[in-house]
Amino acid sequence: MARLTQRKLLSLVAILTLIWGTNWVLFPMAVEEVSVWTFRSICVLGAGGLLLVFARMRGVSLFVPGNERRPLALAGLTYLAVWNAASVYAAVLLPSGQAAMIGFSMPVWASLLAWLVLGQRPTARVFVSLLLATLGIGLLAYAGRHAFASAPLGFALGLTGAFGWAIGTTILKRSRVTVPPLVATAWQLVIAGIPLTIIALATGTRELFMPTWTSIAVIGYVTIFSMAVGNVAWFQILDVLPPTISGLAIVMVPIVAMVTGALVRSEPLGALQVSAMVCCAAAMALVLLNRTATAPG
Prior knowledge:
The protein has helices spanning 6-23, 27-30, 36-57, 66-93, 96-103, 106-117, 124-143, 145-150, 152-175, 181-203, 213-240, 243-248, 253-265, 271-288. By secondary structure, the chain is mainly α. α10 crosses α11.
């Protein structure tokens, strides 16, 4: 695995946090004119195609060894297909920041799977980080308890997306995929986009129409930045860090989503949310500011 310097790792996490955190408030806007399935199929397939073209332009081989194709496909379906459909529905049914908080409980499930499946027992530092992250997520859950009570389906879909993401992460780590993160990301996006597109075509209207420029801009932003750039950054982080630590690397995303939701959609942002920010920031600092959190040489 390639070595990432601490500065580059922190830069990737910062980019990912900003892109994915500001992404959630856009979901309800994106599905005002098109269905969730149409929105996600365009974003996922579009991002996959863009990354394949970009990889070829850089002279990177798109070949995937035969023994790595199955795990890539399974990871793409469990993470990118399940997560992308479930997360948008959750963001429509719940306030965007609270939906992000449920979805980004992924580090907890990834750490449990890493322990049970990969035999990776968390160190004391990682265990404390998990406790802080769980406390932060719990504070946000308590703050949003009334929204969850009125929209249990949104809560269930958020958890479904988090589980799918954790399972996909574990599959990739267990299979030890060797293809570059850029290529692995591109093919997973294409694979995940196929069932999303089939469902979109089967359930959508057959009438052609021109969406507004607002919808086009939102879908374009999500496709290029959230799906393409964001997932390349994520798989680079996953390539060099264990699932438990890589999951903790994104615990600040729901906090950014909460702040964005408060600014754009007047969603609540009070003492509980600020306390959750402190917990999540401390959890991330414990694992990312540790010099041993880089890949072995």
